[in-house]
């Protein structure tokens, strides 16, 4: 059995182990379903990104953790200790970061339709940058900043016209996106012209995000090239030099054996080369580069533990193996058809000689976690781990069927610590009047 997560091993008892903790014992102590995260892997991923900015770009940049991937106080504390900034995309994420004492000046606030309350919250707390998506937001932000006698430092979200989700990426007039302002229609240039007339706005840079779970470097190089071209145009047209270029996140990770992610440091290596070439060609000063990895920092550091319940064999059709979680803690299969690798925690090396469909417990036929999982013969009570669930699982979990959200357990050096406790029925009733 090959594990898709590098931090997994089999211990002397023959059980799956992560962060020095026997995962069968973790399941027994904290019950299931449960998200378990390897803290060392999270920190190591942060360091790889930070080092790459030092090594390939002389440290003239900042790595932001895109906290939509996993937002809880423990993760913001780790990011603070590792010297990263964070990207937040809602008042809730911002509130969580601030409650964890994350430094406001290293927070970037994204979103295509931030509310007035959220913008006020961001201004009042001094977030470092607001990434402005559109003209409506620009004007609203200017008014709110003026009322508070503040100047909002902003980046504009630009659509660079690069579609990284096709098999081999393409550059198109991709204006059909709810995010940002388009280059090819002149919208981006126009919004900058307008921003320069506003009293309480300071335009410090531009931002783009070309997609997620990307395995190639070329789309990022191309995005950097397009964005630098625009920076040169802004300089030539308005005499404005934009010092900051934020190229977003999107770096792919290994969910299943076939996935071949690029080593994380390669992104900065590739981008810095393009930036150097283009800046020389355009006679531009090299900008401060910001990158925003989310998934690639936490996904491969986490797995979900479930207990196997009913195993239903439908002769000549399939075998359903149902677990005590499902689409409420992992909506990604039902939303995107995402694929995963599973492993039985107490039989990690036994031959995988059965094929089952791993089903959840929600009242919905589509509540499937894995269509075809190759596993050793399982029995009710076995603990099943689904790998690479550290990103976009807890953060996308729901209370569908009034199922309480699972806890997050951090494992490190043989110790398992609760970072987020399991929800209770009382928590679920908390807002009912
Ligand atoms: N920056 C911006 C502006 C973004 O919109 C995103 C992700 C990121 C950074 C981080 O991208 P990452 O490095 O995590 O790929 N729910 C989906 C993923 C949605 C990503 C949305 N934006 C999923 O479960 O696959």
Overview of the molecule:
With 433 residues, the protein is of the alpha/beta class. It folds into two domains: 8-38 and 301-431, Beta Barrel (Lyase, Ornithine Decarboxylase, Chain A, domain 1), CATH 2.40.37; 110-293, Alpha-Beta Barrel (TIM Barrel). It contains twelve helices and 23 strands. The chain has helices spanning 23-30, 39-57, 73-81, 91-99, 116-124, 135-147, 187-195, 218-238, 265-282, 295-298, 332-336, 425-429, and strands at residues 8-10, 16-18, 21-22, 34-38, 61-66, 85-88, 107-109, 129-132, 152-159, 162-163, 170-171, 181-182, 201-207, 244-246, 288-291, 302-314, 318-323, 342-344, 354-359, 368-375, 383-387, 408-412, 415-420. The strands form four sheets. Strands 4, 16, 17, 18, 19, 20, 21, 22 and 23 form a nine-stranded mixed sheet that branches. The protein has an eight-stranded parallel beta barrel with strand order 5-6-7-8-9-13-14-15, surrounded by six helices. Strands 1-2-3 form a three-stranded antiparallel sheet. A hairpin with a 5-residue loop joins β1 and β2 (16-18). The chain starts with 7 loop residues before the first strand and ends with a helix. Ligand LLP binds at residues 66, 68-69, 87, 110, 209, 212, 248-251, 292-296, 332, 392.
